[in-house]
Design goal:
α3 (60-70) links the parallel β3 (48-52) and β4. The longest helix is centred in the N-terminal third of the chain and has 13 residues, at 11-23. The chain has helices at residues 11-23, 34-44, 60-70, 85-94; strands at residues 3-7, 27-31, 48-52, 76-80, 98-101. The chain is of the alpha/beta class. It has a 5-stranded parallel sheet with strand order 2-1-3-4-5, sandwiched between helices.
């Protein structure tokens, strides 16, 4: 069963996304801050990471860079409510596999 780590400070989004992914057969870990996400990443070795750009203690691009120092291959999808071409380029350069905008 694939394990997914969700790192986002919007509790409602995290709860709903985790519920959806769990119903689809995934193991889901969640964190509301980048530091908690980094800790879980090391402890759970997820198969994929979904993370927000705006986190209370670190931006998503910096978080991607930190995650990539631990694992170069894990798929990372950044999500944001404030997407731009510049952010997409920065996220991809940092190692994101994709960037999605929140509705």
């Amino acid at each position: 069963m694939p394990a997914i780590l969700i790192i986002d400070d919007e509790e409602t989004f995290v709860k709903n996304a985790a519920r959806f992914l769990a119903k689809s057969g995934h193991e889901v870990s969640t964190a509301l801050t980048a530091s908690a996400g980094l800790e879980l990443f090391g402890a759970t070795a997820p198969d994929a990471v979904i993370l927000d750009y705006r986190l209370p203690d670190m931006d998503g691009v910096s978080l991607i860079q930190r995650l990539r120092t631990h694992d170069q291959a894990v798929p990372i999808v950044m999500i944001t409510g404030h997407g731009s071409i510049e952010l997409a380029v920065d996220a991809m350069k940092a190692g994101a596999n994709d960037l999605l905008t929140k509705p």
